[in-house]
Amino acid sequence: MTSLDSPPQAVPGDTGAAGKQIPPAAVARLTIYLRALNSLLAEGIERVSSESLAEASGVSSSTLRKDLSHVGSYGTRGVGYEVQYLSRHIAAALGLTHDWKVAIVGAGNLGKALARYGGFESRGFDVVAIFDADQMVVGNEVGWLRVSDVADLETVLERTGANMVVLALPAAVAQSVCDRVVAAGVHSILSFAPVMLQVPEDVNLRKVDMATELQILAYHAQRAQTPGQPN
Amino acid sequence: MTSLDSPPQAVPGDTGAAGKQIPPAAVARLTIYLRALNSLLAEGIERVSSESLAEASGVSSSTLRKDLSHVGSYGTRGVGYEVQYLSRHIAAALGLTHDWKVAIVGAGNLGKALARYGGFESRGFDVVAIFDADQMVVGNEVGWLRVSDVADLETVLERTGANMVVLALPAAVAQSVCDRVVAAGVHSILSFAPVMLQVPEDVNLRKVDMATELQILAYHAQRAQTPGQPN
DNA sequence: AGCTGTGAAAGAATTCACAGCA
DNA sequence: TGCTGTGAATTCTTTCACAGCT
Prior knowledge:
Two copies of one chain form a homodimer. The longest helix of chain A is centred in the N-terminal third of the chain and has 19 residues, at 24-42. Chain A contains eight helices and ten strands. Chain A has helices at 24-42, 50-57, 61-71, 83-94, 109-116, 153-160, 171-183, 210-225, and strands at residues 47-48, 75-76, 80-82, 100-105, 125-132, 141-142, 145-149, 164-167, 188-191, 204-207. By secondary structure, the first copy, chain A, is of the alpha/beta class. In chain A, helix 1 crosses helix 2, helix 1 crosses helix 3 and helix 1 packs antiparallel against helix 4. The first copy, chain A, folds into two domains: 24-94, Arc Repressor Mutant, subunit A (Orthogonal Bundle), CATH 1.10.10.10; 100-212, Rossmann fold, CATH 3.40.50. Chains A and B meet through helix 1, helix 5, strand 9 and helix 8 of A and helix 1, helix 5, strand 9 and helix 8 of B. The structure holds a DNA duplex.
């Protein structure tokens, strides 16, 4: 499995079996295992089996083992995984070894909620700036930060060295701000704006959409209610 | 395609080709088409081709056509789709014909942001209650609502007829509140708490996790940075 | 004996390519 | 002619089942 589409020579400065790309579905779950591992760690548990880590993460044990196999072989047959060791290797595979600097654009309710959300710092994400267009809001304190004027977006992104941006702003202005962020050289964007944003290929855009999530729930709820299909 | 695992008799009170279950991946995208259609509608555009609706939604046209085929045949060959007509049928397929009543548990930054988020009402979701455990917060105004005491969860859920719950609370209390919500008869839950929640089979739980999203971005950003794999 | 790691099988989702209708 | 709707081909994901270490 080590080499399928690349020559059968060992990878030089290799940390484990990495280097090969991990399937998207697996990447998404690895973040969940990581969280589960860290909470085991907090409880002082040192070893875990694929079976119980899978249960704690809400997946099947075969899915978990297959996912981990993309990262490397960090378990011991007959025994299980060492929690801290595995956690470190997953973090490395996900690129969480150094901190990422996150700027939030939009200091409305959502932007503020995100800026104050403790979950980021603890997971290797530093919120380094928050912007708003409203002059009434610019200069206000949010968490440890002061709200910058979105007019200074480029300058502040550069100065703070932000390499990720979270868009927490109205749909109407999302595309234009997004364009500026991209032009400023940021390649990783997480958008909460309920619109399809257009970005160049080399920019990674992810979307979180609360209305969509509720609509998906609605679909399933409706299905459950309908009398038909007794199967 | 009409009937594969059910007898070949026509569905009785059928609105279109519905009745059959729609694949999860398609359901998620249908909500996006619906949004795109509604924004076309707002612009006064009456007809659209699969090609341009797909572009506006960020998917390929074949994916779009396949997805729509699960809902029914509402296009005209050689012409395209009538925007309003298609929008109605997708909404019907998703169960968005009647309003859903949403209660939010947790009136922290995130809970407040959600309660005030305009996007819900306009999409058929009514926020009917918001809860918090903190007595300093109970009674406060948030949007059009007053914060209820989470101690009264069961009573208020019943009184307001809430059939969906959004959990916007700390990981530590998420499971116990979730259990109470389930016991109160709610089958659709959207959680923002960064933990794996355990729910019975017949309850639909979806998760939104901002830290996970950033971690996925980090993975891709790291890959893009590494010099290796010239392919 | 027990649990991981992984090929091989099964199942979903996506893309292709074209028949069928306006 | 042009665009939808859909079988067939392809690719991606999950599950199975067991060989391989400890």
